[in-house]
Amino acid sequence: MQNLNLYQNLFGVFAAIGPLSAELKNAIIENSSIATYSKGRILLSEGEKSDTIYFIISGAVRIYYLNSNGEETNTWFLFENELLISVYSFFTSNPSFEYMQAMEDCTLIVVKKERLDWLYKNFLEFNIIGRRLTELYYVRNEAQTNALRMLSAKERYQQLIVAQPKILQRVSLTHIASYLGISRETLSRIRKN
What we know:
Layout: H1 8-15, H2 22-30, E1 33-37, E2 42-44, E3 52-58, E4 61-66, E5 72-78, E6 83-84, H3 87-92, E7 99-102, E8 106-112, H4 113-122, H5 124-150, H6 153-163, H7 167-170, H8 173-180, H9 184-192
Antiparallel strand pairs: 1-8, 2-7, 3-6, 3-8, 4-5, 4-7
Helix pairs in contact: 4-5, 8-9
């Protein structure tokens, strides 16, 4: 059996959403694994099919895609106690259009799609938790999309710092600029003012 201590934060996130029986906790442990990845490791590449969802125990991961010129655009930064998933590929079984890369050494809980489906089928309460987590993910995604469409570069930066204050210590300014849809130079000007 996996080290129970490594699952405590995951169970805390789930329990904040809905009831979590001892049987469900045991089933999650039995249907998942723990993996470690070194900084720089690619967890998913464009063109690969994603059949895995991760929970970040420690470390940081970025999700990005390459435009037609091969330039990176960062779309997500994820840290401890967050779920990591390539939504489109995971739910459609189509090839991914994005990459997942460890920005730091990471320890992750790993669940394959077939195991996740088994948990949903066998534990009604897990369906409620899964639905709520999906809702939270989509709300966050829409808020990010709306910020890119409706806020100025300075407002986007300020919003990011309020929402994720640790980001400046853990993510390069180049990646942050890409995430905000601005150049590194523009970000430097915003930070000086």
